[in-house]
Amino acid sequence: MSYTPPTMPVAPPPPPPAAGPAAWLKSPVGLARATMALLGVGMAVDVFSLVAGVGVFDVVSDLIDNGWSAGAEDRADRADSLYGLSGVLQAVGMLATAVVFICWFRRVRVNAEVFAPDGHTKARGWAVGGWFVPVVNLWFPRRIAADIWDASAPATPDAPLAGPPQPAGWEVQPKRTLLNAWWTLWLCTGIFGQIASRQYANAEEPEAIKRAVVSLMASDVLNIAAAVVAILFVRRLTAMQDAKARTGPGTHA
């Protein structure tokens, strides 16, 4: 009679890691429209700032050419007040636009996770936090946007290309030209705007004020260009996701 040793107890397997919040599809169209509308309002405020800047430039030029007078001082006070108002409106508009844009950005990031769960190099939380962490905010949002862009691209399996054959399921990714233009202009507006603002704040002599006003006006023009490209970027990415959501995976919320 053979002897059967008792079975040794087996340790239970470790519990699986806790899953993060599930990603789900939700239309970004409403947030996109609000973002584009606020960007349009920002452009109008920048135009107002340009007009106010021209007024300051003219008054300072008149003071340089003709010297001080009571009338010139009154004009200078009015022009300075108008320019200050334009700055306040720009700050308020930028804050409102930033809040809505980040809400839209997070929404399309969650959608992109449904389209391509393994196609993201940064965690979902960085879609918001990446804008506020110093230094990191110089490249994290762009990296996240590129992942969103690729995940939202329309699928074109077995697309015919010149050259060697591509593997099955290969997708043609839309060029990132618009994305790169948006990010480049965003960085430029932030850097140039800071330089121009400090130049204006430190200007005391009339000639220095004129140069600073010119710098601020150039910054306004750059802001307008950046807003136009941002509108095109938001519109294009939203359209890509909307089209893919109608045929792609995921559960609509």
From TrEMBL:
The keyword Transmembrane helix applies. Keywords: Membrane, Transmembrane, Transmembrane helix. The keyword Amino-acid biosynthesis does not apply. Signal peptide: none annotated. Residues 72-239 form the DUF4328 domain. InterPro entries: DUF4328. It comes from the Bacteria. Pfam families: DUF4328. This is DUF4328 domain-containing protein.
